[in-house]
């Protein structure tokens, strides 16, 4: 069937949800540049932009340390939260689960940080017809004590938009097994869990994570056939971040990406950006990439977006709203009503 509209145009118009977006990594490039220009002790070019050219897994993490140096103070956190949500709304993302580790700045506590993010989320979501929830991240490089504290703070704001807990950070640092008590506590408190997994070859830990059965996994790149068959039989949804995996050199290109295998197996997957600022992508672009690379038709892209809703940590009522918004978009997307 011929389409008047380009694949990119269709993917932008398609209502989408985003379930794997780190607040700091989703920062606008122009905001990064502005924060850099404001810095008194800057010298030479922004190292962040330089780091964008030379990519491997560890240089991707060194970029984040540059961002953390620039993103200091709650006024900046407030600003980037609003901008990131605005950017998602502009490309017809109707629901986002943002994630962030909680930081304390000067005389401001981690709870202050959480409150600023939640307030900015609420206010911006109301302006842009988008729903936003938060996942509090546990950085695997930090201590169990820090992880426990993060869960306790999440508990204090549970009914104000915090819906889950994420395990993230440089996968060569720290161990899942050592932080597991904090994740168990989060589970007891009623939080849904999503864990970054198999970003590097670490089959032993990936096995432990599968045994733990979190509600979702992030990435799941380096898996043996045995681990994959366990994942498929457990049906744990996977947040797929193709551009992030390519730019951090976890895979050669879109064609070799495990999206293809997971999709053919009808495994629940969600297309996500991970860090849309750092990796210069958007959810729409991730849909275009799979449409192009794996020859998915428009109905298939629509179904992929629709089925992602089931994997979200939103309330059942909200999920029903997202499905309705998707159904209502079919005519303007040029799809037949069914
Ligand atoms: Zn991530």
* Overall body shape: globular
Bound molecules: zinc ion
Largest sheet: 8 strands, parallel
Uncertain runs? none
User: Please, how many domains?
Assistant: 1
Order of helix and strand elements from N to C terminus: HEHHHHEHEHEHEHEHEHHEHHH
For this structure, the CATH topology is TIM Barrel
Helix content range: 40-55%
Q: What structural class should be given to the helix and strand makeup?
A: alpha/beta
How are the strands of the biggest sheet laid out side by side?
A: 1-2-3-4-5-6-7-8
The DSSP helix count reads 15
- pLDDT averaged over residues: 93
Give the tally of β-strands.
8
| N- to C-terminal distance | 17 Å
CATH architect. name:
Alpha-Beta Barrel
CATH level 1 name? Alpha Beta
Report strand %.
5-15%
Q: How many whole angstroms does the radius of gyration measure?
A: 19 Å
Catalytic activity: N(6)-methyl-AMP + H2O + H(+) = IMP + methylamine
Family: Belongs to the metallo-dependent hydrolases superfamily. Adenosine and AMP deaminases family.
Keywords: Hydrolase, Metal-binding, Nucleotide metabolism, Zinc
GO molecular function, one term: adenosine deaminase activity
How would you describe this protein?
With 338 residues, this protein is α/β, with parallel strands linked by helices. Helix content is 50%, strand content 14%. It has an eight-stranded parallel sheet, sandwiched between helices. The longest helix is centred in the middle third of the chain and has 19 residues, at 110-128.
């Amino acid at each position: 069937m011929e389409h008047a509209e380009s694949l990119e145009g269709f993917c932008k118009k398609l209502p989408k949800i985003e379930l794997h977006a780190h607040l700091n990594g989703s920062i606008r490039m122009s905001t990064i540049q502005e924060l850099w220009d404001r810095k008194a002790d800057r010298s030479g070019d922004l190292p962040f932009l330089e780091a964008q050219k030379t990519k491997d897994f560890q240089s991707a993490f060194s970029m984040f340390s540059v961002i953390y140096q620039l993103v200091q103070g709650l006024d900046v956190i407030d600003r980037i939260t609003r901008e990131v949500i605005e950017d998602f709304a502009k490309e017809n993302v109707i629901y986002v689960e943002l994630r962030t580790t909680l930081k304390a700045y000067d005389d401001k506590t981690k709870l202050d940080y959480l409150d600023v993010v939640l307030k900015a989320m609420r206010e911006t979501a109301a302006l842009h017809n988008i729903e936003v929830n938060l996942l509090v991240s546990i950085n695997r490089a930090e201590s169990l004590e820090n992880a426990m504290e993060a869960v306790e703070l999440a508990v204090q704001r549970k009914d104000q938009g915090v819906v889950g807990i994420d395990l993230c950070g440089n996968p060569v640092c720290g161990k899942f097994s050592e932080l597991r008590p904090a994740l168990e506590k989060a589970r007891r408190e009623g939080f849904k869990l999503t864990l970054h997994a198999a970003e590097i070859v670490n089959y032993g830990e990936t096995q432990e994570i599968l045994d733990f059965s979190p509600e979702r996994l992030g990435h799941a790149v380096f898996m043996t056939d045995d681990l994959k068959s366990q994942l498929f039989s457990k049906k744990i949804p996977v947040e797929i971040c193709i551009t992030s995996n390519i730019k951090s050199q976890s895979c050669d290109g879109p064609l070799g990406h495990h999206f293809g295998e997971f999709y053919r197996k009808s495994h629940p997957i969600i297309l996500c950006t991970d860090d849309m600022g750092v990796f210069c992508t958007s959810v729409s672009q991730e849909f275009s990439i799979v449409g192009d690379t794996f020859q998915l038709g428009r109905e298939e892209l629509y179904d992929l977006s629709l089925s992602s809703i089931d994997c979200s940590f939103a309330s059942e009522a909200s999920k029903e709203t997202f499905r309705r918004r998707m159904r209502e978009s079919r005519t303007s997307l040029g799809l037949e009503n069914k």
